[in-house]
Amino acid sequence: xxxxxxxxxxxxxxxxxxxxxxxxxxxxxxxxxxxxxxxxxxxxxxxxxxxxxxxxxxxxxxxxxxxxxxxxxxxxxxxxxxxxxxxxxxxxxxxxxxxxxxxxxxxxxxxxxxxxxxxxxxxxxxxxxxxxxxxxxxxxxxxxxxxxxxxxxxxxxxxxxxxxxxxxxxxxxxxxxxxxxxxxxxxxxxxxxxxxxxxxxxxxxxxxxxxxxxxxxxxxxxxxxxxxxxxxxxxxxxxxxxxxxxxxxxxxxxxxxxxxxxxxxxxxxxxxxxxxxxxxxxxxxxxxxxxxxxxxxxxxxxxxxxxxxxxxxxxxxxxxxxxxxxxxxxxxxxxxxxxxxxxxxxxxxxxxxxxxxxxxxxxxxxxxxxxx
Length: 372
Known about the structure:
By secondary structure, the protein is of the alpha+beta class. It is built from seven helices and 15 strands. It is globular.
């Protein structure tokens, strides 16, 4: 096994710094001599090296989690120049980042073919969330943004490619969650027995390989999208909730959102989302948001199959469905464990480790938000 990458988020693509610390490692050793080299290119070169060094007769698994196209918006100028027809600067740089990513993926597939691995390789290309409208991304025509429970935040796109697939050029619209990839790949594709791996039990995911292969109904029937109970009061605010709370769930065709959504529901018309990173409406690729109608009830019910753009709130027409989904949320809430949020530990400062972000706590234990 090997590791090549970073520990934090929002690294500079060229300096590989986060704040005042370097965050780039080759296995466990800091990579201190890559300043000025674009991370997308570096990750591509490492994947190419691994592929070409591999014995094609042996199994091979590569998790290629590119930094792109996450912020910050950075790309070599010659890639940005390929997108000169895009007027918005953030979208133009984002496009350049995507050009570099696309080139890297093309280089990886070329290496798979060169090493006689292409015909026996399954490629899964997917994402972890929707785009960040304020940092070059866009989810049009879906509603919302990364870090929201609207479809623009939680609906990811992807594709599978492999000669072993029974059908090609088809679209699968069954319900899937990120946790389904592990059992789908391990049990479905690799045909390994998950029951013999105690460390993986119990799993939240489903093996959806058979459903994907036959384009049939997904074994997954629901997805808990978020469960953030109200928080507070705190010593600073002893008489009010510091966080009002949000819960959201998808069951079959129905999606329920309760409580204050991640962003304000009523945003002024024609707001430029380059200054508002968390819109609740529909953001056009030109950066202008179509604001949503106000909803003082803080209850949203959508038939997502019929209304993927989340334009028609049906909570008043279907109180029975609202109650059914509330009960499912209560089932999850009955085993909910509050997130531990310990304060910043000065011992973690990278200056204590030669200017490199480094794990600093051994055998850590969290209990009620306190780090021991």
